[in-house]
Amino acid sequence: MSRASTPRIDAHQHYWTLSRGDYGWLRPEMVPIHRDFTPADLDPLLREADIAGTIVVQAAPTEAETCYLLALAAGCRSILGVVGWSDLEATDAPARIHALAADPLLVGLRPMVHDIADDDWLLRPTLGPAVAEMQAQGLVFDALVRPHHLSRLIRFAEAHPGLSVVIDHLAKPAIVAGPEGPGWEVWARDMAVLAAMPQVSCKLSGIVTEAGADWDVAQLCPFAKLALDLFGPRRLLWGSDWPVLRLVSSYSQWWQATTTLLAMQPQTACDAILGGNAARIYLSRRGRSPY
User: Fold this and answer.
1) CA–CA separation, 82 and 196 (whole Å)
2) Hey, what CATH class is 8-286 in?
3) Domain residue extents for the chain
């Protein structure tokens, strides 16, 4: 991959402080990631990969964590934007979202859909007022979903055509099973429907974690190729999912894998996927720029 002609942006990473106590999913047996992670840990890795900055994404379903991340971003030049969390079903959800969005560093919200017991949660009409306020504030809806949620996400996106939706981690397909696996056909079909909607984008992120500790680039290629074929270089965003990535890989290993996955793409496509799209989708609509 040639040197970037536009600044690179890692469109998906996390920071956390365990003593905050609201990371219910983060268990002690997850040894590589069960500790605090701050910009001091990531900044050297960003410099090594020539990445200008990041979009930091919530890891706890609390507004307190969102405020923590916004405060962290205010003092850290490498954090270009925050995808936070708010209770989208709260009776005062629009007012709460309006208040959070007063901080220009907030660029999106992410309900942790894949942890919600009700698989039809995205179809609840109670989400309507919150979604309307998100649109009014220029916030992105990050969709943390699994393949079985995609049929609901299709209906959600159809109901809110003015809402920018970004699918995290290719919707966590069954990487280990591969394109011959039983889940591929339905996943690919639903992703194609979503990709036909111009307001929907997708992150090339998180797939090494889904592949497991024995992952290799060949496993990832069919999934990355399909995403690129469907969403094109204008609606695919690269992200590390660091430090969750550390469960199976280092930052540099995933970066090197990315250079292989994008090896046949022209420099203009690489520039878009590795930074330009994140700047346009997350930052420009909030009147911000990393350049």
Assistant:
1) 27
2) alpha beta
3) 8-286
